[in-house]
Amino acid sequence: MDIAALVTWVITALGGFYLLGTWLSRGGARGGNSHLPVPVIFGHFALAAIGLIVWIVYVIADKEALAWTAFVLLVPVALLGFVMLARWIPVHRGHATAAGGAGAGAGQDVPAERHFPVAVVLAHGMFAVVTVVLVLLSALGVGGS
After folding, report:
1. Contact 4/59 with Cβ under 8 angstroms?
2. Residue 62 lies in domain
3. Is residue 105 assigned to a domain?
4. Which of 27, 53, 60, 72 could potentially form a cystine with 33 if both were Cys, beta carbons 3.0 to 4.6 Å apart?
5. How far from chain centre, in Å, is Cα 75?
6. Is-contact 113 95, C-beta < 8 A?
7. CA-CA distance, 95 to 115, in Å (whole number)?
């Protein structure tokens, strides 16, 4: 279960890196070009990265406290992820609505997160949920080490 959680966490991180790269390359970190607050984005990223490092150390050292530390780090990561999802959905819906009428101002004032591929957002979220569940189950000792 520990390795399965590690694999899903790495897959989740790869999707997250892609989304972060897309957001940054489209000017998301510049003021006014995103509905996603910069501290939320980077807080999500930093806590997830620290948690992944803790999880890797846990897999190597097999210390229960590290498993729980990684899980505790995942709680705010998940909450920040839900905040970003809630703020992204209207942007995505606005894009779907605007796609019907060709674009006055196309490319202007377009939030950076409008460029997120839906499939990547969904996969990132689904792998994140699976990761949280697997990390919790591992911390509880379900399925052995």
Report:
1. no
2. 2-92+110-139
3. no
4. 27
5. 12
6. no
7. 9
- Residue 120 contacts residue 18 (beta carbons within 8 Å): yes
Q: What is the DSSP string of 80-145?
A: HHHHHHHHHHHHHHHHHHHTTS--TTTTSS--GGGG--HHHHHHHHHHHHHHHHHHHHHHTTTT--
Q: Tell me how many degrees the CA angle 119-125-140 measures, rounded to the nearest 5.
A: 150
Q: Do the Cβ atoms of 84 and 44 come closer than 8 Å?
A: yes
Cα 24–Cα 89–Cα 11 angle in degrees, nearest 5: 60
Tell me how many domains the chain contains.
1
Q: Residue 144 domain-assigned?
A: no
DSSP state of 33: S
Identity (one letter) of the amino acid at 108?
Q
For residue range 39-49, list pLDDT tens digits in order: 999 999 999 99
Q: Is residue 33 part of a domain?
A: yes
pLDDT in tens, 60-91: 999 999 999 999 999 999 999 999 999 999 99
Distance in angstroms (rounded) separating the CA atoms of residues 37 and 32:
10
